[in-house]
Amino acid sequence: MGEVRLPHPQEESSVSEDRIQVEVTKHSLVYISEEMAVLLRKSAFSPNIRERADHSCALLDAQGRTIGQAEQIPVHIGSLPLGLKNTLRYLEEHGVPQKKGDTYVVNDPYISGTHLNDVTLIGPVFRDSQIVGYVANKAHHVDVGGMVPGSISPDATELYQEGLIIAPVKLIDGGKLNKEVLALMKSDSRQPDFIEGDLRAQIAANRLGERRFLELVTKVGASRFPSVAESIMDHTEELTRHEFGKMPRGTWSGEDFLELGGGLLSIKASVSFTRNGVRVNFDGTARQVEAPLNAVLGVTIAAVSFAVKSLISSNVQLNDGFNRMINVVARPGLLVNPERPMPVAAGNLETSQRIVDVIFRALASALPDRVPAASHGSMNNLMMGGILPNTGESWAFYETIGGGSGARPNSDGVDGVQVNMTNTMNTPIEVMEHYYPLIFSEYSLRDGTGGQGRWRGGLGIRRSFTTKARVRVTILGERARIRPWGLNGGKEGENSSYRLKRADGKTLRLPSKCTTALEAGDSILIETAGGGGFGLRGLRNENARKRDGDYGYK
Amino acid sequence: MVKLPSTPKHPQTAFSKSLAGIWEQGVSPENVTSLVHVTTIGSNQLLGQEGLELPRCAFVVTKGFRDILEIGRQNRPEVYNLFFERPRQLVPRRWRFEVRERVDAEGRILEKATEAELRALARKMLREQIECVAVCFLNSFVNARNEIRTKSVLGREGLDVQISSEVDPEFREYERASTTVVNVLLAPLFSRYLSEMEKSIRKAGITAPLEILTSAGGLVEASRVARRPIIAIESGPAAGVVGTAEVARILGLKKAISFDMGGTTAKAGTVVNGEVGMVSEIEVGGRSNRGRTVKGSGYPVRCPSVDLAEVSAGGGTIIGADPAEGVVVGPMSAGADPGPACYGRGGLSPTLTDANLLLGRLGDSLLGGSFRLDREAAEIALKEVGSKTGLSPLELAATALRIINVQMAKAIDLVTVERGLDPRDFALVAFGGAGPMHAAEVAEEVHVDNIVVPPVPGLFSALGMLMTGHRYDEVVPKVGLIEEMSDEIESSFLAMEEALIERIHLARGEKARVERSLDLRYYGQGYEINVKSPKPFKTETVLSLFRRMHMRTFGFLHKGKKVEVVALRLTVRTPNPNLDIGKISSPSGVGHSRERSCWFEGGPRNTPVHQRAALGKTPDLDGPAIVEEYDSTTVIPPNWQLHWVRSGCLILRRSRR
């Protein structure tokens, strides 16, 4: 047998070692953010995080650019990069020196980029006396004060009504927990236990991230790490550029609407791809409103990023290399880039969903085999709370409900599922009934509610419960009047509906956004929208028709 | 040893053939004292493998909730894939039936179905030719009476019924319903399969009992699995970890990581003080992403299973390029057919085996010289992909190796670091055809300094099956604050013990170990921690253990928070048989070269090649070195040494620099 000729050690190019390092580091960064998220979830207290996983984690380089992020909640993922940059800028402008062992807490949407419930923790990672990067995470706290249990009120007309606003402050000062900040946050919440429990889980996640980050930097070499990180981001940028290169040239426009009171708010976007990125211009979109539907810029960028990422190859990583290819043009004062002190609680819940719809609608003709019909288009937020009859303690609860996903160019939509900007899980009914004074009567798919077509939309969900004590309920939904659209002749999905049934049997229809008080024995019935259909019903094939009878189609 | 391809349509055919193969090797049926079986027909059936149709199964549930099976946890398995699909529905919607009944969270019966309603339902199901029925009512884990009654009424009408409060009496309705349905669906297949197998072994003249290795890594009688197939769904991978536990015991290792790398996947598990790391829930038929199960991609099944992290990393894993010159390794695999390019069976994509060959880590043949490898084909394949990444074939091979080693290290992290265990305290037990080849570099990634390569690494999992005793698990739901329940807990444990011991009929003279544990959490917290309990039960002991484990796993405590009990668990185990692994060895290989050039981090090295059978007891070989045997190749990098051979195991150590 012939001897293999291997390059002599001296011949071995340093290029290859660098390449290996870049690949290995890229994977490791994602692993770290995943590991942080798992720890955060496992040790959290509120059902919102532990059951629904409403949180995300990220790693940044010393310049505050995202270098590693796992695929978690899209609205968090997309808004974290800008939020973290803003936070670091705020600290610098306010002359806050960063020390080893510091962790800053922030939830000001105009800085950290979503809504007040999303509390962000960010901490520098020091090696000797130098910052080598940052670890950060964002988690949805179930109650941060404000007008209603769950904090998200459809009636808010300014930010100050939506809960405690925290500009970046030190939650941990040089390794020491700042008890005053914790006390302040707890005292402003209807669920102080959850604030503390979930914050501790967030702190633990960042600590773990910091430790892992340092190990990684040491392994790569502290002096080498910045250039390795740079290469990772550049590689992602190159991949993204390659993907964008495959997109058709031109500018496409779309429009869709949000429902507010009796009126509609228009969101318009024009989208164009170039080798230097995607450009999304929101000119023509409605002005900001004195209602919580305003989406801060971070949310708008998150929605655009999601829509774009889901239309390109799955190999593109989530880091600054991708983020820098997303160009959003949204003039201040628009619904999609409001100015303080506009309320914003529903911006990342509902407006973000609609922005995705608008971008898909714009690109439907450009990418006919990739863009699905409209999904149910809402997070169907349900907030509630009151006093527990057995202990006298106050409680607050938050969940979102899925619906039908839009039919795809080659398949039916999926029934009863979270779409686009969220992917949180449901809270098991047995968990809710164990902790809260509620009893559920239904959780099922709504027959025949997906828009018909060659491919049908997914079915909406029906979820209803009766209270066993006085409970204040807030609903923040969408698509009650404007149905999810179909494509290529596919029909619209069924609209959503929200109803209140009094103990005496009287039923009243609720608007898609409202707060109401329930007495023991009263019930809430929520029906979420179905997805739009794709193609003409006449083209539906035999196999697909066979399933139809089971799902309420004739 | 006999190794044959499976026969999916008639799984028992391959089994009969393998028996014939064993007789040919000179074993006679009457000398068989133990017959242990593992099978993957469970997951194959759920994945819709051809020839294994699902039985006609009905799902009976509380009124208003027939779709909980389909909605699942309401999330989608892939966030950015607009074309995602749910796993296929195991029970068609028309066979999901609702019953007017309700139990509240405190266990009060608010409504119960009338006899007439249930009988009418039974008739409807019989008309639909339903073969089996799964019943899952809300809160039945608190009060099972409505379920029990439904079972008895439907059963009287001639239906085969299982209820969730018996199959998986724990909270979270979707997971309980899914577990019950999977059990019900698999039962007909398993009982048919096992009874046919029983027949064929008796016909062959074997008198030893037929036993099955469970996903929890213990043996149970075949008849028990026939009724409760969920306990044996993941039995194959469990065998290797069980073998690792026994190797650790023989060598006196307190902590061991099992590292099993074969043709398509690599799996990691742990053993601490003789205890195999376990999880209480798995997702059957689901996908995993970087070692982590993708929630919503399969069917949740709750039953104690060996904790395994699995990544797509095996000899057949394909090396590719992305459009921006990045190297992508996996998750696609060339499998066994066409297999790696160097197998010369028409595979064109380069694989890890091709990389190992080009780097000189593999010799030019496998299976003791009987299977030639085509080096040129490997190089061509690597060159093709290399040109898309700007790397030479060798550089590409080296890069791919490093990437995959990091991914496998991640799997180890998942079962150690994420469970609060420090891998540095562990020894790595490496097996599977490719395990010993990658072990040292993977060990370095996780800072492990000791490696054990057991005898016959390529077939070690099969050996593992013969190294374990019986194991029975029982769980009883018990929800409440621990401080208010200590008497109740003790009496429940006693009752569980009595019932379980009676049911399993321990063989005469067989000694059993009874272990108690509780699932605990802070009141309001999401995840339970399983804590061992002394007999008799002592609240303080258990609480302090809980706090210690919480601190270790999460890094903090919730001072002043009350602790809630969720479930009581009981495990009964019999001792492991004593298998002398020192006497087992694989057929000796035929060495072609005494030395070859082999790539290591830092470049190529002239590397001596040894035959395992020819090694003495204290070889004290310094790396770089290669040890070849029939079914595997062990790579010893420069900074490692083969320290000694004990009980047939190679012990590798990292030199302290």
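qc> Residues 15-238 of chain A form one domain.
qc> done
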